[in-house]
Amino acid sequence: MADGGKILCMYSGGLDSIGCLHALLTDDAYAGFGVHVHHMHLVNVEARALAEKRAARASIEEFRSLGARRFTYTESGHNYSFLQRRFIWDMDISAFMAANIAIADPTIVQVAMGRTGTDVDGGGSDFQRRMQRAQRVFDAVWSLEDRQRPVYIFPVVAHSKAEIWRRLPASLRELAWSCRRPRYEGDTPVACGKCRTCRDIARMHTELESQA
C-alpha cells in the first residue's frame, strides 16, 4: 500500500466511474495512494444490473491489460427489484456501502465518486440535495466510529462527460455502460436511447462531432 493510505473508488462501469478510476490510476495527485475499487450489482426496476456488471468487469480487465498500476477489486450484490413503487437512489446505497467498506479497512482515507461537471451543471438543486443526503447516509453509518472518517473526493467533477471521453483510451471508453433502462436481446443489453444518461451521451457525441 502507498504511504498516503488508500482511496476507495465506488465503481459502476459507466463513463463517469471509468473516468474517475482512470484519474486515480494516472494523475500524479493520487500517486501516493493505494486504490481499492468496489462495484455493486444493483438489481432494481431499471434492470441494468447485468449490463453494468459486464461493463464493470470488462473495463477492470482492460485497465489491467493496459498496464495500470495495481489496485484491488471487490463486488457486492443488492436486490431491490421487489420495491416496485420505491426507488432507492444509487448515491444512498453507494454511501452506505462505502462507509461499511471503509470501516472494515482502516487504511481507506478517501472515497472517490465519479461525479462530473455535466452532472452538477445539469442536476440543479435536486441533484445537490441528493448528494447531501448521501453524505448524511455515510455519516450515519460512520457515527459509531471513534476515528476520523474518510473524505469524499470527486476526481473528475471539473470535467464534462465529453472531456472525460477524450481523456480515456478508446478501448476503455467503448466499454462504458450508461443507459439506466436497457432492453435485452437474449443476454445482450441494448441502450434505450431515451433515459437521461442516454440523452447525456447523445449530447456529448454531438458536442464532440461539432468540435471535430
What does the model show?
This protein is α/β, with parallel strands linked by helices and 212 residues long. It has one domain: 3-Layer(aba) Sandwich (Rossmann fold). The protein is 46% helix and 17% strand. It has 7 helices and 7 strands, in the order E-H-E-H-E-H-E-H-E-H-H-E-E-H. Helix 3 (90-104) packs across helix 4 (117-142). The longest helix has 26 residues, at 117-142. The radius of gyration is 17 Å and the shape is globular.
Outline type: globular
> Rg, please?
17 Å
CATH topology: Rossmann fold
Please report the first level of CATH classification, the CATH class. Answer: Alpha Beta
Number of helices: 7
The total of beta strands comes to 7
Helices and strands, in order, run as EHEHEHEHEHHEEH
CATH architecture assignment = 3-Layer(aba) Sandwich
Low-confidence stretches: none
- Percent range of helical residues: 40-55%
Summarize model confidence as the mean pLDDT: 91
Structural class: alpha/beta
Number of domains: 1
Strand content range: 15-25%
Distance from first to last alpha carbon: 42 Å
